[in-house]
Structures are given as C-alpha cells and as structure tokens.
Amino acid sequence: MTPVDQEENDLFVDPQRCIGCRACEAACSECSTHRGVPMIHLEPLDPFESVKTGPTLCMHCDDPACAAVCPADAIKRTEDGIVQSSQKSRCIGCSNCQIACPFGVPKIYKARAQMNKCDMCYDRTSTGLKPMCATVCPSEAIFFGPKSQIESMRKNKANNQFQFGGQKITTKVYVMMDTSEETIDMDVMDFMSSSGLEEKEPWA
Amino acid sequence: MAKLPISEDKIFEQFGPHLKYEPPGGWEKSVEEPDSKVKTHCCFCGQQCGIILKVKDNQVIGFDPWEAFPFNKGKLCPKGVKRYLQGSHPDRLLYPLENRSGVGYERISWDAAYSRVVAEIQRIQNKYGKDHFAMLSGVSLSNEKSYLVGKFARVALQTANLDYNGRLCMVSAGAGNKKAFGIDRAANSWADLLETDLILCAGTNVSECAPITTDYIWKARDTRGAKLIVVDPRITPIARTADLILPVRPGTDSHLFNTILNLMIQAGDVDQQFINEHTVGFEDVKNAVAKYTLDECERITGVPVKSIKTAAEWWGKAKRSFLLHARGIEHHTKGVDNVLSCINLVLATGRIGKVGCGYATITGQGNGQGGREHGHKCDQLPGNRDITNPEHRKYISQVWGIDEKDLPGKGLSAQEIMNEIHDGKIKGLISICFNPLVSLPDSNFTREALEKLEFYAIIDFFMSETACHADIILPGSLHEEDEGTSTSAEGRVIRIQKAVNPPGEAKADGEILLEIARRLGKGKYFDHFKKAEDIFNELRVASKGGTADYFGITYEKIDKNMGVFWPCPDLDHPGTPRLFEGGKFYHSDRKAHFNVVEFKPSADEINSDYPIYLTTGRVIYHYLSGTQTRRIGFLSDQCPDPYMEIHPRLAEKYAIQEGDGVKIISRRGSIELKAKIVKTIRPDTIFVPYHWAGKQSINRVTQRALDPISKIPEFKMSAVRIEKV
Ligand code: SF4
Known about the structure:
The complex is a heterodimer of chains A (about 200) and B (about 725).
Chain A: E1 10-13, H1 23-28, E2 41-44, E3 53-56, H2 65-68, H3 96-100, E4 107-109, E5 114-116, H4 122-125, H5 132-136, E6 142-145, H6 147-153, E7 157-164, E8 167-177
Chain B: H1 8-15, H2 26-30, E1 36-41, E2 50-56, E3 59-65, H3 78-82, E4 97-100, E5 104-107, H4 110-128, E6 133-137, H5 143-157, E7 162-164, H6 171-181, E8 198-202, H7 206-209, H8 211-224, E9 227-231, E10 244-246, H9 253-267, H10 272-278, E11 279-280, H11 282-289, H12 294-301, H13 305-317, E12 322-325, H14 327-330, H15 335-349, E13 358-361, H16 368-373, E14 380-381, E15 385-386, H17 390-400, H18 414-422, E16 428-432, H19 436-439, H20 443-452, E17 455-460, E18 472-475, E19 484-487, E20 492-496, H21 509-522, H22 532-543, H23 555-561, E21 564-565, E22 592-593, E23 612-617, H24 633-638, E24 643-646, H25 648-653, E25 661-665, E26 670-677, E27 685-689, E28 718-724
Parallel strand pairs in B: 6-7, 6-16, 8-9, 8-12, 9-10, 11-22, 12-13, 16-17, 17-18, 23-27, 24-26
Antiparallel strand pairs in B: 1-2, 2-3, 4-5, 4-18, 14-15, 19-20, 20-21, 23-28, 25-26, 25-28
Helix pairs in contact in B: 4-21, 5-21, 5-22, 6-15, 9-12, 9-13, 9-15, 18-20
C-alpha cells in the first residue's frame, strides 16, 4: 500500500468523471465502524433530464452547520478539519443536523438512533492510507492527494467555496468545477442525422 | 432425462438465488484480525483487478484494495468489492446431488455420483459414438483448468464436441485478429493508452464493462489532451464526455468504418510507407471502400455527414491513436467483418506497435483471453494451435502422450452443439462454468434442447438455471478456492492465489475432472497432475512454439513481476507488453493483412411488424448470466430486475411512461418488463440487459443466427415490436 502524507492531501470530487458505478458506496459500506451502511451516496444530478450521477459525501465545512445546531454537542470537528460522526454517548437522534446541513449529508440511522456520516476514513488516513472511496473509485471521480497534483492533471478547477443564499461556506473537501459549457442534459438525437429520414423511423 | 424434477419455484426456494449482505459470521467477525491476507485477482471481468482477500477460519471475510498491483492500483468496481460474499453463501452447493423426478435433488456420495457419470458417458458413447457426448466449458476458469478441460475432453472423453462460453464473447475479435495479425491478443498493454492522442471506442461500454479502463482514458485526456470518439447506439457513461459521439444504428458499424477509411484515403491520410513495407492487401481494400460515400453512410448508419467527416479527419491526422472495441461490434452475424473494418483503419495509418499507438479488443470474461488460448475451443489446441493443422496435432499428441489418430478433430461450436442436442444427435453432455439457458440466444429453444438429453452432468458451485436440468450435479470450486493463473485483457498472465478450501464436500474443479478421467481408464495421461502448477508446467510445454507461447512464464516469475505478458518463449525473456514493434506481424510473411469487408444487413429483418432494433448488454452490477452476482445483496439491490431503455420520442409514440410495463416481441418469443425512459439511446433502438433467467431473460427474444466464421450469435441486433401492457 502506498502511504500518503496526510498533511498535504485533500479529497476532491469530480462529478464529470463519475460513471455511476457505486463502488464508493460498496466499499464504504464494508467499513468496520458502520458495517453494511455506506456513508457516501450516489445521487442522480438531475433525475428527470439526465442519467448523470455524482457522489455526495460530507464536505467537512470549516464552520459546520450540523455541529452548530446540535443541542447535545455531539458533533466534533478535529484540529485537522474533519467533522466527525456524532458521538454515540451524546447523540439524541433529534435530526437537527440533518435539517441544517446545506449539502444534505447527515442521516439518522434508526436502528442505532444515531446520526452517522462520513469522517473521511479517519482510521485509514491516520495511518497514511487514502479514504476507501478514493482508493477504489475506478474513474478517480473521487481523488485524494495534493491540490497541486490534481490541478496539474485536470482541466477543471478545484473549488471549496459555496454560496447558499447570502451565506458563503468554505469546506475541506473540494469539488472540481466544470470549465466547459457542457450541460448535463444530453439527448442522443442531437448527435443523429436529421436529414429527411423521420417518416420511415419507428418513432415518427 | 435432463428435466426439472420439481417445479422451478420449489427449486429456487431451496437453492436461491438468495441474497447475502453480510460477511460470514456477521459484521462482528469481520472486524477481527484475519488469519491471512491473500493477494489475488477479481473474478468478474477481463481486467482482473488485483485485490486482497481477508481470510479467517477458512472463509473470506472481506477485502482490502491492493494498491501496489500496477494495473488497477487499488481501484475496484462494486463487483470486485462485494465478490468476497460468494464463498460463504448459503446457496453454495455442498455435496453431489442427483435429480429424482417428482422428488427433487437428493444428496448422494461422490462415489455414487462419479459411478453414474462414468456409466452414462460409457453407455452413450458405446451406443451412439464418441462425439455424441459433448462438453461445454467456460472462460471464468483459470488457464490451468481451461487446459485441463481441453485435454480431458480430447483424451478422456475422446469427443470432438467441446466448446466454451467464449463463443458468446471473444470469438469474432479472435478470428479477426488472427486474420489480420496472425495472433489473437490485445496489441498493447494499457500503458500505451496513457501515451496516446486519440482514442476510438467502438461498441464498448467501457465504464460498465471495463470500469478501470475509464481511468486510463481520462488520464490520456487530462495529461496529453487526447480526444475521445465513441461509436455506440447509446450514450454510455464514457460517451457522456466524449469529444465526438457517433450514435450508429445497430448493425451498421462496418459501413461507418469503410466510409471513414475511404475519406482518409481521399485526403491522403494514410501511411503509404508502412502499408508498402509491412502489409498486404491494401489495394483491394482501397478499391472496395471507394464506393462507400458520405451520404450513403449517413442514410445507413444514421450518423450525420459532419460527424463522419470529423471522425475521418481526426483519425486520419492523429499522431498517435488507440482503437478499442468490444461486443457491441462483435456480437453480429458480421462480427468478424466489423472487427476487420476497424483493423483496416489502424493498419492504414501504421499507428500500431509503437509508443501510444495501439489496438485492442476488450476481453469481457474473467479469463476470456487465456481461456481461449489453451484448448477448450472446438477448433483449437493449446498455444492457440489449430486442431486441423497436422503439425500442431502431432506436437500436442506428443506432449499428451497419445497417438495422433486418437486426437479428435474439429468439433461443433457452442450454439451448434445445442442445435444438435435439439436435433437429438448429441445425447449426453457434461458442462462446467457455463449457464447456456441464460446466456445462449433463443432460450426457449435451449430449454427444449436440454430436456432432450439422455444424460447431463454439471460441475457448478451454485444451482444455476441450467444446473436445475442436470441429472447429476457435482459441486465445484470458486476462483478463490484453487491455485492457478489467468490472462487479463492486456495479455498479462497473472496468479490466482487460493484463499480457502471449497466448503462442505465441494471439490476443486480439477480434482473432479481428474477422477472422472481416471474412472474412464485414462488416469495415466493425468496422474502426474498433483497440483495446479504441474498443469501449468505442461501447458508451458504444450504452448511452446505456438503463437500464445507461455514457455518462459513460471509462477515464480509472475509473482516477482506482478504478471508477465505473453508471448514469452524462454525463461530469460521479459515478456511482450507491446506486440508488432518494428512492423513485425505473426503471419508467415511477417506482414499484417488487410481484409476486404463489404457491408451486409443483419440477419433479423426490420419491417413494419418488427420495426424496432433491440440490443442487449451488461450493467456494471452483474457478471454474465448473473449466477454469482444475483446472489450478492448489494449488487442485486442496485439492479434487481432487467428493464427496457427507451428514448422519450419512441416512448411517446406508444404512450409509455417511466416504469410502465411493456412487452417486447420478436420472431422467437416475448418478454415483459418495465420501461426506463432515457434520452441516451437512439429512438429506433431499445436496450435490455441480459443477466437474468426464465421469464426475465431477454434471450427468449434474441436469435440463433451466427457469424459464419466466428459462430458468435447476433445478440446486438434483433428486430422487435413493443406493446404497452
Ligand atoms: S469486475 Fe472488473 S473492474 Fe470490477 S473489480 Fe472486478 S476486475 Fe475490476
């Protein structure tokens, strides 16, 4: 295994490269702390217009709304910027965090009456490994490494500042923003011949 | 007999598919320190990703990414992540079973099972002749097992009628490669993808069927600005970001490639020096493609003139290029032609055998590459030798220690074997690693055929839908339950490490075949095989001097180098990641051969009764006939049932909405399933994935028409009509 230097590395999500395979969910669900339940979720980007998908995982906000609204002070942010899952002994399963998070990340797991979410594989990163999702992702839509490295490799830009209404949120996790005009809505007919064939076609 | 002893529902109740979600012993046990961590490979596609299996108490309890393995560097698709759940699955067959009419499957001893199998083989062969007992095999088996099956069928069963499920997979590409290059292997390792400027993917759903290849393509685009052209009737995930999308009408690929070549020739974008020095047959091809015009191409393929021109310009002018294709162009009655029309494009530019210049078919099955080289193909002997070539026959007979006249000749291909079973000519069958009831076309016909067999024995680890028809079921082993090697899509020979023993009374596949051989009185040809490595060492000798030469490859060398690329003719040879360097090909004239391809229509006619094209394929969550992946909870949950992809334009015409029930009807049969409306499929075409059985099997609708050379069925184009239900 290649140990990676934790200080220099960040997590990057590049939805453009996501192939919708759910390897991230499958691998995340194998973790010994949340056994069978993935903390990362694959979402359709626009379910009515497109088959495109993108992974949603905790963005690890600099100033996490989930922790701010927690009445039991169960959500802690570590010194290196990881917003951890709720502490079992404190969490009262009230759902405040779920409502407050602008990215829709925390989920209350009824079976254990507790909020669980991605802690960026603290067990792995603390021993020099990459988070599991970034290790297995077949297309490197989830990437863990230095920012300079990904920026030199890819055409799109890493962004970690998001505007929600009047509020600006800065996160530890970066999203690779598309630089092209590309829309997520693609219709095969835009790439097909349209020269006077229509009346013979089964769809006409 | 080969009939179901009890109702299908009762069989499924007992044998599944049931879904398994948790590791053996539950999640609690999975956190315990494993007894061992075994570095091996995934079994679920031709890429053969490196993976580490965690073992405790003779069970695989989880996985770890194997980041040091150079091909995938720890990457895995969800099949790889969850594959460990199959070993300890409650549906595993744990002891031999006998089919008793009206009763079900009864447990019997191994001795009783072997005795019955051997008695039936002898009875049928004595009564009807040797070739009336056939064998079907598959290329999820290791190289050692593939070799053993080839020798077992020819030496122990003495039947010519041995074929394999690669007949549904790699044979069009293999035949095309042999005709053009004189060798059947990807021309390059994937490392050359990283060094290329233009990638053309034809009929290959890379992201779902070869997921790790996605990263290679992206890296070439990121680091070198490589362009990507995708030829496919669907905008597959890899196509979504392509620079040029050519959504061809199913079955019209060779028209497109011929036209592109014609445009390139007209523009002077061919490498005349390479053509003169290293190829033959160009003038004939040039003359043949001269009549393929742009307008005609647009009319036939449905791809706009502008896009065809752009493709010809990009391909013509590129400095480096890599062409990848897969079943999308190969599963046709003109599959070999389609492959050859692609290869003509590569040869005309001379961009092969150099850094960043390449060509490959993407092998689909786990060991689709190695499996087909070493002997369970009806026309081949080990080392990719030809069973009709007297020299080749003589050499292999010597290695096997048999008289050349006792070596059977060329047999029938897989579909032809099923046809002869249906005709009542082939009376007995033994199969391993093949689920023809799901994977062959026209499954109603396959079912009728199986029911006509006088005797059928199967080696399997789960009760596959085909196994339900067997008279005797011999519980075999999984990938992780035996030692061996396998050869990835790149041509890299890798080691499969044994992680656990087969559970219950199940046995390693090889052990079962060896015992049957012994009881057939042929022990002396097999008794020296004490372990898998002994088989590999004989395979090395048998392949020596053949095109697929493994002689210089040893287990030790593979372990040391994380794989060795064949051909590797002697022990000091480093292996051959890139073929054709210096323009040297494998025909006796050392040249590459152009082949004239004329566009032909598909076998199934589109008309007003059957106006829609049906094409079939895979989804990322399942492997082949689904016997394994339909039993793994996570995978099955993502895609529990087949569905029909349809464009909104076509859906609107039939007033079909998302999730509506629809019936698809062909000249063979029909199927009912739910509609999934997507804008990414041509509106004259529907798509259905093929991993399911019985009423959910799209192969009730597909046809048995075969390519005349490769004998691959035309899965990728059936004429159908649809009805809302
Ligand atoms: S199925 Fe293929 S891509 Fe997926 S993990 Fe296995 S070998 Fe890798």
